[in-house]
Amino acid sequence: MKKLNLENEVFKNTLEKFSIRLQTQRASTDQQYIKPNMVKEFLYYMEQNGKTKFNQINQKLVNKYFEYLRNRPLETKAGGMSDGYLMKHREAVLRFIEFVLGLIGLPVGKGESGIRIRLVKSKPTSKVILLEDEVKEVFNVCDDTMLGIRDKAILSLLYGCGLRRKELLTLEMNDIDLNKGRIHIADSKTKYARDIPMTGNVQKHIEDYLFNVRNRMLDSNSTVTNFLITERGTAMCNGNLAKIMEKLNERSSISKKITCHLFRHSIGTHLHRFLTLQDVAQFLGHRNLDSTMIYTHLKHEYYG
């Protein structure tokens, strides 16, 4: 989203107060940044449509705004805004409306502003996966420097172990059991802990990073327990991981957009060529087989 400049002073001041409220409520760092920016786009839309007062916010205006969002072209890729991102916009706008009502002496509980935002899910698009040769190419673009060795460990966890992005970032040192060749996932999207076996290649990349890179990146007095760290010795975050994926995109000749979840979809499809759907679900940490059915479709789409 391009930089938007609000002109309405009341809008700007109220948005600043909303940001401060998020900080005092100890919202996550991401939420302290994302929600105000989403609200800012809503206020900018109001300005562009001649709405300069909060009492002009009504159901019709909100409906038109979300119709606009659904169809607004993205700057970074083709297509419109995803369902997930629209849901985040919905949450931000509703919380802001409730905040404004509280400021003018009409405090309401969560979800009681009278505004309803119903989002219709877009038609699902076919998932993209990497073929085995493409996975090898991504591994091969990682060099033998400290960062290259770390990036191979990341790829091994994303592809070889099928980890979700959050599972990767929250992985702790004591979750890695080299003696048993297993990785323990405690913090899962489904709240369902699981142990994942490491193949020989995965364990090789993990050990190479642990013994030759991680300790050299850490300060001697560091208390960081995250498995993945940056070159500055800090715990890796979403932004760091996104930059690594961008770097892999630039270095490889693959036309597909490389993301963390692309590797998870890829290993799920590759495994389902030889394993049952139940086995794949257990490996990926799915509690419901409906979530795993996509790999049956992908297997037939890519391998017949």
From TrEMBL:
Domain of life where this protein originates: Bacteria
One annotated GO biological process: DNA recombination
Record keyword NADP present: no
Entry keywords, A to Z: DNA recombination
GO molecular function: DNA binding
Parts of the chain that traverse the membrane: none
Domain spans labelled Tyr recombinase: 125-304
InterPro entries attached to this UniProt entry: DNA_brk_join_enz, Integrase-like_cat_sf, Integrase_catalytic, Tyrosine_recombinase_XerCD
Protein name in the entry: Tyr recombinase domain-containing protein
Organism of this sequence: Flavivirga aquatica
